[in-house]
Design brief:
The structure is a single chain. This protein is α/β, with parallel strands linked by helices. It has 2 domains: about 160 residues, 3-Layer(aba) Sandwich (Rossmann fold); about 325 residues, UDP-N-acetylmuramoyl-L-alanine:D-glutamate ligase, CATH 3.40.1190.20. The mean pLDDT is about 90.
C-alpha cells in the first residue's frame, strides 16, 4: 500500500496525544473499533456512517493475539488490517489496540463519540458482556456511545465460505451442522450446566517447560549439549481439568493428594480459579508429581523429560482418610469427574467408592509413566467415558478393529451409555445409546498438544451429565480442543467467552 497511508497509523499513545490536540481545536473525534479481518461493504457503510457523527474519524484494530475467533484467525495480520483501514478516505487515523478489549483503549484515547454497529444495540445479546463495559468506559471520559444502522455483513461468514479457512470436509460438516443447531442454541446449552455441582478427582501434575537451545554433541561424550534459556511452570493434570470446568460450572470442588516432601501447595492454590474449593490429602513418602520437559522453544519440540513421581499405591492411612471423606460427600454432587493419570492415586477401593456417584465421568490416561497399565477397564461402571483412540485400543486389546465396534463393546462392559473417543487429526467419535456421531477437527494450527484431551473431557463432561446429544458434545469438545492446541501446555484454561466466540465463528 502507498506509504502515505502509513502516516495515518499511530501507536495508541500517539493517537491519544493526537486526540488531545484535535479536541483543543474544537474538533469532535469519533472512534470505531473492531477486528476488520477482511474488509467488506458492511464495514465501509459503518465507517461512512461513523464519519458523519463528527469532524475526525479514528479507527482502532484488535491485535492478532486477542482475536478470539478460533484457529486460523485472523486471516490478515494486524498491520495489514491497519493499512487497509488507513487507505480509506473517510478514516483520518488508525491505531492497533494494546489490550484484549476496547475498555482501556477508550480510557486512554478519550474520543468524543464511540460508534458501534446496530448488532450491539441489544446489550443482552452480547455474549462477551463487553458492550456494557465499553459504555461505562466512554461515559467515564465524557464521551457518548452511538450505534449505526447500516447494512451488515459477516467477515467470518465470508472467510469461512470463500477463503478456505477450513478443509472441504470440515466446511461440509459445519454447513450441515448449522442447519440443526444455531450458535445461540449451542451456547445456551453450554450455559445451562452452570449450576451443576461438580467434584473433580485425580492426579496433580506440575508441568515444567525448561526451554533450551541445542549446542551440538559434546566432543568428549556421546551426549547432546543444550543451553538453558528460561523455564515456565504450569498447573497440569487434574488441576488443569478443574480450571477448565470451573469456567463453565460455578460450584467445583477438587479432591486430590499432594506429596508431603515437596507439596507445591502454595503454587497450586494460586493457580486454581477462585470458585474451586479444595480438599487436599497428604502422601508422606514422596513429593507432588512434577514432569520436567526440556523444550526447544521455537517449535516447542520436546527433547527430553524427567518425571518426579511415586506411583505405587497410597499409604494405608492416606487412603483410609481419603475414602472416608469421599464416601461422606460423593452423593452431594451432580457430576463426579475423574482425571486418572495412573500415578498411584486411584485404586480398586477408591473406584468402588466412586461408583456411588450420581453421574460418573471418567478419563483413564495411558502415558509413559504408567506404561499402558492404566486402562479404563479398571473401572466397573461409568456414565461417561472420554479417552483417546490408542487408549480404547489398549483397553480392548485390539490394534486394528473398527472404532465403533470397540465403543459398543466398551459401553457394554462398563454399562456406559455415553462415550467420546478423541482421534487426533481424525477428530472425535461420540456415542450415546447406540447412536454415533463423527466430528472433524477444527484446528488449523497446532502449538502444543499437551492437555488437549483434558480440555475435551472437562468441557464435555457437564454436557454429558446434562443429557445433551452426542452431536453437540462432539462439536463442543472439538471446539474446545481446537482452542487448547493453540495454548502452550496449560498456560491458560479454556474460557467460556473465547469458546462462545469460536462457536459463533464456526456456525456463521
Amino acid at each position: 500500500m502507498h506509504s502515505s497511508y502509513n502516516t495515518k497509523i499511530l501507536s495508541i499513545a500517539g493517537l491519544a496525544e493526537k486526540v488531545v490536540q484535535l479536541k483543543l481545536q474544537g474538533k469532535t473525534v469519533v472512534l470505531c473499533h473492531g477486528v476488520f479481518d477482511l474488509m467488506h461493504p458492511g464495514h465501509i457503510k459503518h465507517i461512512q456512517a461513523a464519519r458523519k457523527e463528527g469532524d475526525i474519524l479514528v479507527v482502532t484494530v484488535t491485535p492478532d493475539r486477542h482475536v478470539n475467533k478460533g484457529p486460523g484467525r485472523p486471516v490478515f495480520t494486524e498491520h495489514l488490517r491497519a493499512e487497509t483501514l488507513a487507505s480509506l478516505n473517510a478514516v483520518d487515523f488508525v491505531a492497533i489496540n494494546e489490550w484484549a478489549t476496547a475498555v482501556e483503549m477508550l480510557k486512554t484515547v478519550r474520543p468524543s463519540v464511540y460508534i458501534k454497529g446496530s448488532e450491539y444495540a441489544a446489550a443482552e445479546k452480547d455474549i462477551t458482556g463487553g458492550i456494557a463495559e465499553e459504555k461505562r468506559a466512554i461515559e467515564s471520559v465524557g464521551g457518548t456511545l452511538r450505534f449505526t444502522n447500516e447494512i451488515t455483513f459477516s467477515s467470518t461468514e465470508l472467510l469461512n465460505k470463500f477463503f478456505g479457512v477450513f478443509p472441504e470436509a470440515t466446511r461440509e460438516f459445519l454447513q450441515d451442522f448449522k442447519l440443526k443447531l444455531s450458535p445461540e442454541t449451542v451456547i445456551d446449552k453450554i450455559k445451562s450446566v452452570k449450576k451443576l455441582k461438580v467434584l473433580v478427582v485425580g492426579d496433580v501434575i506440575i508441568d515444567e517447560y525448561h526451554y533450551c537451545k541445542g549446542l551440538g554433541k559434546s566432543p568428549k561424550d556421546n551426549i547432546i549439549t543444550t543451553k538453558f534459556i528460561s523455564d515456565e511452570q504450569f498447573a497440569g493434570g487434574v488441576l488443569a481439568c478443574a480450571n477448565h470446568i470451573a469456567g463453565f460450572c460455578d460450584d467445583v470442588t477438587l479432591l486430590t493428594c499432594l506429596g508431603a516432601k515437596d507439596s507445591k501447595e502454595e503454587y497450586i492454590k494460586k493457580s486454581l480459579k477462585p470458585n474451586i474449593k479444595t480438599r487436599f490429602f497428604s502422601r508422606p513418602d514422596t513429593c507432588t508429581v512434577v514432569k520436567r520437559r526440556f523444550v526447544e522453544p521455537v517449535f516447542l519440540t520436546k527433547l527430553f523429560e524427567v518425571a518426579f513421581l511415586e506411583d505405587s499405591p497410597l499409604p494405608q492411612d492416606t487412603e483410609r482418610e481419603m475414602l472416608s471423606y469421599l464416601d461422606s460427600v460423593i452423593k452431594e454432587y451432580d457430576l463426579v469427574l475423574v482425571s486418572d493419570f495412573g500415578h498411584g492415586l486411584i485404586n480398586d477401593r477408591l473406584i468402588q467408592c466412586l461408583n456411588k456417584a450420581r453421574f460418573l465421568a471418567v478419563n483413564a490416561q495411558t502415558n509413559s509413566a504408567n506404561n499402558g497399565y492404566n486402562l479404563v477397564t479398571k473401572y466397573s461402571r461409568a456414565d461417561y467415558v472420554c479417552i483417546d483412540e490408542p487408549e480404547i485400543r489398549l483397553a480392548s486389546h485390539d490394534k486394528y478393529g473398527e472404532v465403533r465396534n470397540l465403543i459398543t463393546a466398551l459401553s457394554g462392559k462398563l454399562s456406559c451409555s455415553q462415550i467420546s473417543i478423541t482421534r487426533g487429526h481424525l477428530g472425535s467419535t461420540t456415542y450415546n445409546g447406540g447412536s454415533f456421531f463423527e466430528t472433524p477437527v477444527f484446528s488449523s494450527k497446532i502449538v502444543d498438544r499437551v492437555g488437549a484431551g483434558d480440555s475435551y473431557l472437562s468441557v464435555t463432561a457437564p454436557l454429558a451429565a446434562a443429557g445433551l446429544p452426542p452431536e453437540l458434545i462432539g462439536f463442543v469438545g472439538n471446539a474446545a480442543a481446537a482452542l487448547k492446541v493453540g495454548i502452550v501446555c496449560n498456560r491458560s484454561s479454556i474460557e467460556p467467552v473465547p469458546l462462545f466466540k469460536f462457536i459463533t465463528t464456526l456456525l456463521k
